[in-house]
């Protein structure tokens, strides 16, 4: 299969996922994606779009987890390198690498993920919220819960805590400078 045909098939998959995003409104639905070897999910209601990764404009002296800035629908937004955010080894971007554009606390940003998996629904009993006892054993400040579906475990991101207040403040300053 030629590279052009693979690119078209991958673009078609992104288009289908984006169409599903626009037509979904149910609770407990998550866009699931891979970062390293783990599967994560983010509340579908926060996701604006999933776009193919393109190298963002670098911002020198920025927080190392900020890969750069990009133009999204006429708005300059920061792009977060989730490998750096989670202290994972750097990984080469490939044809499956995408940016999930989402909004949190009235700020739009993107996060680079290795690949989007699916849109999944979980019943209440399939979601285990992170409690204080669990936090002592595992660093969970970015996780709001763990969803179980058959043999698969999905770590549910708390989008409000993907970035700290300090990091959100810095992003707000980038947006003011660039916009």
TrEMBL record:
Residues 27-168 form the CheW-like domain. Pfam families: CheW. InterPro entries: CheW, CheW-like_dom_sf, CheW-lke_dom. GO terms for cellular component: cytosol. GO terms for biological process: chemotaxis; signal transduction. This is Positive regulator of CheA protein activity (CheW). It comes from Caldisalinibacter kiritimatiensis.
